[in-house]
From TrEMBL:
Residues 1-33 form the signal peptide. It comes from Acetobacter orleanensis. It is an enzyme of class 3 (hydrolase). Its EC number is 3.4.21.107. It catalyses: Acts on substrates that are at least partially unfolded. The cleavage site P1 residue is normally between a pair of hydrophobic residues, such as Val-|-Val. Transmembrane segments: none annotated. Residues 505-527 are annotated as: Disordered. Its main location: periplasm. Belongs to the peptidase S1C family. This is Probable periplasmic serine endoprotease DegP-like. One of its GO terms (biological process) is proteolysis.
Amino acid sequence: MMSEKSVSKFFGRTSRKTLLVLLAGVTCAGAMGVGPAGLSAAYAEDAGAIKPSSPVQTLPNFVNLVKQVKPAVVSITSIIKADAVEGEGGGMGGMGGGMPFPFPFPFQMAPRQSRQQIEARGSGFLISSDGYVVTNNHVVKGATKVTVTLDDGTTLPAKIIGRDGKTDLALLKITSTQKLPFIELGESDDVQPGEWVVAVGNPYGLGGTVTAGIVSARGRDINEGPYDNFIQIDAPINRGNSGGPLFTQDGKVVGVNTAILSPSGGGSIGIGFAIPSDTVRSVTDQLRKTGHVVRGYLGVNAQVISPAMAKALNMPVPAPGAPPAGALVASTSPDSPAEKAGLKAEDIVTDFNGQKVSSPHDLAVRVSSVAPGTDAKIGFLRAGKPQTLTVKIGNLANASNDGGIEGGGASSGQHLGVSLTPLTGDLRHQLGLGNEVHGVVVNDVQPGSPADQAGIRPGDVIQSVSSQSVDSPRAAVTAVRAALAAKKPVLLRVLRDGQSLFIAISPDGTGDGADSSSGNGGDDDDN
């Protein structure tokens, strides 16, 4: 690593030369008559150009804001067992060391390791005068001792009230002889890209560090958990900022700084992620009351809708270039809230409690935030027609999973490139299927065929073709021929690994793979 002196020397030799080259390029362009003035005049002739109407504004001053909120921001030190860290890997619970770009990782303070224990540092903030502190789960996970250092330097022992690994949040409690300064949670749904935000935290042990930037995007899914819904920011945040607050200019917390994306696994490159305050509020309220989090459960296996599927399902045509929005119900779990309410396979969920649903992940996030036993309104399309229903949300903790598929047998499935076989009693036994399951089994898939390109696999059980149930290879072939004759995509409902999913194959031989499906099992999707 270059020293500060060597870095200055490096830029002294290099940057000036680079700058001169750029300036020379600008001079040449102007001499040729294609400089900025000429380009502006040419572009001005296009009446369709976007012309922002916002007035020019000066950069905001955050001095007063920081003075008011900084006393409620704390530094956190955790004493963690060495074996607890070694067993964590590179997810939200680990340091992220050695992970390939561009995998985002948490950025707590690099640990100081002894033979038995590791000291790690992070950030947090007070949300009540009686000492409740919000931070990240990965800051305190596996900790045998946690201490909180206030802005005035006072260090107090902290008790872990509760942790939630799925959202990477934790709630601590400290006790003081006096009322403590605290800050309020704002409304993250009101935050807009381009808005100024301020981060305060404890990067590299430098407590009380303030950085500023803008909101880069909302609703980011970085594949860290089933409920990812991050605010992306460009305010510089680094290791040790984990658990620290993200403020808007009104002094409200709209996020908890949690992870960064870095090519080298080192410092900030201006791509950071914060957990929205709406999620923080829901999770910490439950942790405060019960010490754990319960989540809503709908009981659907949903998947992303491709353009070919949208056409096969007679969905409204989206705007040019826009993907079809919604969550396609591939199946409903037996005796689940969705099944009881009347939701069916091939329904397309478009909104949940008045909020737009653009994908299965959207649906999972919205359902999980609803308390079990609460009624929710679902808007959906059935056969292309909009409908609504009311469902009583269940408890995810009471949900279970089942299923399992493996092999196949032999017959003919023309035009798609598959070999089909009846679902006999022996095959039911081999595949672990009950008598209530009907369909035909894919025995083989021709390499490079439309079925192969669409993602059909040997062992798949085809249950319906273009909304028609099939229980024999002949019935399946007849339904496929009818769909192809009408020059419409062939929509197959397939049972795979205990989960139902849809696969669409277009008449021209192109298809949509099944890898984008989202299940309703375990910790992956909790719809």
